[in-house]
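In the lab's daily routine, each protein ends up as an entry in a very long ledger. A line of letters takes care of the sequence, but it says nothing directly about the fold. The fold becomes a row of whole numbers, each drawn from a learned catalogue of backbone shapes. The protein below has been through that process, and both of its lines are reproduced in full:
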Amino acid sequence: MSDAAFQRRAASIEDDVDVLYSQEAIAQRVRELGAEIAAAHPGGDLVLLSVLKGSFIFAADLARAIPLPLRIDFLGLSSYGGKTESSGVVKITSDLTRPIEGAHVVIVEDIIDTGLTMAYLLDNLATRHPASVEICALLEKPSRAQIRVPIQHKGFVIPDHFVVGYGLDFDERYRNLPFVGILKPSAQRAAGNGS
């Protein structure tokens, strides 16, 4: 694909989305969150636990913003499938690679809306006996909350819109956008038709 064709396709993808938080705004907030987490954990065994797939870009940037030695691990959870709303049924698709017993764990999540997935994860992690567990969420959508979970480190509070970009997807698409935006209904319909 030529550079011009690539640029046209990239512009087309971005036309599907209205920007909610720019790349620059996200980068600034991630730096602030990194400093906040570092201040809260001056010593000890810190583990960033990235919830896949949505938080992988956020977790990578956040890890670089925390000036501490830390471990990074990944846990795959699914509750959406190809839908825009959580099914409420959570399944572990990929488990941790190392034990977290005695560790200070910071769960890195892309978005918390209903709270059902995070409540499940908190219960699951408690059985693994970490020293502490905190949540760092890029986005919170409180209008959709069914269960309130404590979010110690929060990027942005958003209205009740379906958002994509910066790791968040619709049917595995749009994760690669450098910003967070609201997916237009026309793009949802087109993706649903397989186009």
